[in-house]
Write a sequence for this structure.
């Protein structure tokens, strides 16, 4: 590879690195979800309002995935995603992020919960291509 080709390659790599947001770097904190029936006390504590009109998703009754997450130097988080055909659309389902029993953010996130992770600075939850800001205490 000649000098010009190397220079162009390095420039392309540097440009690609420069456009990656810092918060998109994942932390080493695992988000380990557990599955709960929507009728369970754990799921009802988070999704009671939404459970009134929840409908089966395929053959399965509505459920919630719930993870308790320990963040160093911060109060614990609870991250939960609701799975119901009434509430999910496309490849997204509702998500709630809570701290001390209060919702700190909610919205829609990809249903591939196994790819949800905290950013390295713990200021965002990354759910596939969505970045959900967090204001942790």
């Amino acid at each position: 590879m000649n000098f010009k080709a190397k220079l162009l390659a390095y420039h392309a790599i540097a440009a690609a690195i420069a456009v990656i947001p810092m918060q998109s770097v994942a932390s080493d904190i695992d988000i380990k979800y557990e599955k709960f029936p929507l009728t369970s006390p754990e799921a009802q504590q988070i999704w009671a309002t939404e459970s009134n009109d929840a409908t089966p998703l395929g053959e399965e009754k509505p459920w919630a995935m719930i993870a308790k997450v320990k963040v160093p130097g911060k109060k614990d988080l609870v991250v939960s995603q609701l799975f119901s055909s009434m509430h999910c659309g496309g490849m997204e389902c509702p998500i709630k992020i809570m701290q001390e029993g209060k919702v700190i953010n909610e919205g829609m996130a990809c249903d591939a919960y196994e790819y949800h992770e905290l950013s390295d600075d713990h200021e965002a939850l990354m759910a596939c291509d969505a970045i959900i800001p967090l204001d942790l205490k």
Q: What stands out?
A: DSSP finds two helices and eight strands in the chain. Residues 6-24 have pLDDT under 50 and may be disordered.
